Amino acid sequence: MTDWQQTFIDQHDLPHDYRLTAEIWFVPVLDRVLQARPAGRPLMVGIQGCQGSGKSTLAAWMQAALHARGLRVAVMSLDDFYLSRKARRALAERIHPLLQTRGVPGTHDTHLLADVLGRLRSGDCPVTLPRFDKATDNPRPEHDWPVLKEPADVVILEGWCWGIPPEPEAGLTDPVNALEVQEDPDGRWRQWVNARLASDYAPLYALMDKLWVLRAPGFGCVARWRTEQESRLRETLLARGESVSGVMTPEQIERFVAHYERLTRHGLKVLPDMADVVWQLDDARRIVRLQTRDSV
After folding, report:
1. Residue 230: Cβ within 10 Å count
2. What residue ranges do the domains of the chain occupy?
3. CATH number listed for the domain at residues 17-292
4. Which secondary structure element, helix H or strand E, spans residue 156, and what is its range?
5. Residue 171 confidence class, pLDDT cut points 50, 70, 90
6. Distance from C-alpha of 240 to C-alpha of 211, rounded to nearest angstrom
7. How far apart are CA 260 and CA 246, in angstroms?
8. What is the CA 91 to chain-centroid distance, rounded?
9. Is the distance from CB of 193 to CB of 169 less than 8 angstroms?
10. Cβ(126)–Cβ(149) under 8 Å?
11. What is the pLDDT of residues 24-72, one digit of tens each?
12. Using N-to-C axis directions, what is the helix angle for 3-11 and 55-68, rounded to 10°?
């Protein structure tokens, strides 16, 4: 094992066999990506996967692996572009109360995201990369945002709804869970969210060269995976001596993931035919199959 791989595994508290997972499933994709880099600008890669699927870890591994090969890599999370609680409160008052909860399309600052992606794509540096604090449910102060000083060779953006297209209108009629039955009986929230995918997100998808998907076996595992995420967040905050008041309880998690259910199910259905790379996961988040287009 090379030094960077061991360092990565230690830093991310991963099992020792993650190295083998990466060699089997990630390195072949990485090798082909290096051959697909466009001339004169960075390769733009989007990674989609439901909550807890391993998007952040995959993005970080790709960054470390590419860095080990001498390339500059910018990694961002769609989560870092969430609107502030105040801005979401305004949406909740103006559009629908469910928009107070971060997560669905329409609760991101897509104008900021478009600016950052455009500057990264054109190599217009320095570029400040936003950071969101989930424990406080607000963006971090701008002086805490990292600055990319040199143009990147590869840009990676990961997000739970990245790449998901709007649903057909007919699919919006029936609610998918109790949250929609009780709190969106007229469908106004889901229709507004769907419209944002078309108007605000689809143009951003067009800035990317590749779409990679970590595909869960179904929506049923999302709450469990999210609970594991929150447990790790709690441990991290405690280790830093920071407040854990913003970490969600199991009951809060169940309600939270209900906001994501409709589009998560839609993505599971349609993205395999749209993505350049699909890693199929099992219930334990192990990769069991790799699907690629010829060009990756």
Report:
1. 21
2. 17-292
3. 3.40.50.300
4. strand 154-159
5. very high
6. 35
7. 19
8. 22
9. no
10. yes
11. 999 999 988 888 889 899 999 999 999 889 999 999 999 999 999 999 9
12. 150
